[in-house]
Specification:
Blueprint lengths: L12 H62 L1
Length: about 80
């Protein structure tokens, strides 16, 4: 038989509810932080993609200008 002082005792319902609420709030804050980090990562990716597309555009313009100049020089 167990001694009274070492038996497991349940926390009062109010304390359990407060603990669950705090755990949910912590989880929600963690999810919100992950969403902010993901949004920032997507923004950086979009900026890099934009810069790459702009760079390709400049390259295409230079190639077209060089080809046009070569064609005109041949005429």
């Amino acid at each position: 038989m167990r001694h009274h002082s070492i038996q497991n005792k349940k926390a009062p319902v109010g304390c359990e509810a407060e603990g669950a609420l705090a755990a949910n709030q912590t989880r929600d804050e963690s999810v919100a932080l992950e969403m902010v980090e993901l949004t920032a990562l997507m923004g950086r990716l979009a900026l890099r993609l934009h810069d790459t597309v702009v760079e390709i555009g400049y390259y295409v313009k230079r190639v077209v200008a060089a080809e046009t100049a070569a064609i005109r020089a041949g005429l």
